[in-house]
């Protein structure tokens, strides 16, 4: 029984690290490419720093969008790492069922599910509002400078 707990912790830790690593890599790539896209929209009233702030305020939304696919990719990477060392074969040969291994992988996915719910309920609405205020501040400033309505 103690050996199964140790194996369960090992499988959960391996897949959780792979999931979090995948989440970090995909999030950084999404932020980088979004920032590069925003650099194409630079104008005198919207500089690179404002674009960077806009992208940072949008980062939780990107993270929320990336979490499901990163959980899947991370689970595959984690199980692949276990399979490359024949650890899954050893687990199966000592009588650990496939569904039990899947349950251990789902434990680590549960962490990302909780993070996803927390982001969608509390963080993303606030940060989206801030990101839109950065963009709308740019358009209001442009409107005021060009037409003189807001002086």
From TrEMBL:
Q: Could you tell me the superkingdom of the organism this chain comes from? A: Bacteria
Places the protein is found = Cell membrane
TM spans (from-to)? 16-36, 62-83, 104-124
**Where the protein is mainly located, per its record?**
membrane
Keyword Cell membrane on this protein?
A: yes
| Purpose | Part of the ABC transporter complex LptBFG involved in the translocation of lipopolysaccharide (LPS) from the inner membrane to the outer membrane.
The record's family statement is: Belongs to the LptF/LptG family.
Q: How is the quaternary structure described?
A: Component of the lipopolysaccharide transport and assembly complex. The LptBFG transporter is composed of two ATP-binding proteins (LptB) and two transmembrane proteins (LptF and LptG).
Designated name of the protein: LptF/LptG family permease
């Amino acid at each position: 029984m103690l050996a199964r707990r140790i194996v369960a912790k090992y499988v959960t830790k391996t897949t959780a690290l792979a999931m979090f690593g995948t989440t970090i890599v995909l999030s950084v790539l999404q932020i980088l490419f979004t920032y590069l896209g925003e650099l194409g929209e630079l104008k005198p009233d919207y500089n690179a720093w404002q674009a960077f702030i806009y992208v940072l305020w949008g980062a939780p939304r990107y993270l929320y969008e990336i979490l499901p696919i990163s959980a899947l990719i991370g689970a595959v990477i984690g199980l692949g790492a276990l399979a490359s060392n024949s650890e899954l074969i050893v687990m199966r040969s000592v009588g650990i069922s496939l569904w039990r291994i899947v349950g251990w992988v789902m434990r680590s996915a549960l962490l990302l599910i909780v993070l996803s719910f927390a982001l969608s309920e509390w963080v993303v609405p606030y940060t989206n509002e801030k990101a839109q205020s950065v963009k709308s501040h740019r358009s209001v400033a442009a409107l005021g400078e060009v037409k003189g309505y807001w002086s």
